[in-house]
Amino acid sequence: MTRPLLDPAAVSPRVATAQARFHADVVAEVAQAVATHDVVVVGMKWNPHVPKARKALAEAGIDHHYLEYGSYVSMWKPRLAIKMWSGWPTFPQVFVKGQLVGGHSDVRKQLDDGSLRALLAAPRPV
Predict the structure, then answer these.
(1) Which of 1, 67, 88, 103 is the most interior residue, by most CB within 10 Å?
(2) What pLDDT is attached to residue 80?
(3) Dist CA 42 CA 11 (whole Å)
(4) For 13-121, which CATH class?
């Protein structure tokens, strides 16, 4: 089941242009990392779930690429652009082989049930 999204036809051309430009450099950086690396963690300072997700991956022997964007008091707009792009409302955002798999608790569950390793072993979707 997917979350309902505003129909693009209901967005004015001016707003669509503003959406596309909103911290496009940050979105491009994240998208490039997700396309290049098998595992990417996008996070922020001070959020306790970010180091927990990274630690869980490290303890499982899974290397990851890390991108950090500010803290609770800085860079909230670039993080908002990432959230708009991914559709995921919180950090960390963990991507495996180009697929958003969730945050810390999701990674923990997928490590426990083996589905994260299975995704890593599968070919990257085209």
Answers:
(1) 103
(2) 98
(3) 28
(4) alpha beta
Q: Which residue has the tokens 């008091």?
A: 73
21's enclosing H/E stretch is helix 13-21
pLDDT on residue 16: 95
CB 82 within 8 A of CB 69: yes
The first and second tokens of residue 93, run together, are 């955002």
Which residues does 57 contact at the CB level (< 8 Å), separation at least 6? 39, 41, 63, 64, 94, 107, 111
- Three-point CA angle 62, 66, 71, nearest 5°: 135
- The predicted pLDDT at position 2 comes to 83
Q: What is the pLDDT of residue 96?
A: 98
The pLDDT assigned to 125 comes to 85
Q: Could you tell me the mean pLDDT of each successive run of 10 residues in the chain, 126 residues long?
A: 89 96 98 98 98 98 98 97 96 98 98 98 90
Angle at the Cα of 69 (from 67 to 94), degrees rounded to 5?
A: 45
State the Cα–Cα distance between residues 89 and 71, nearest whole angstrom.
Answer: 15
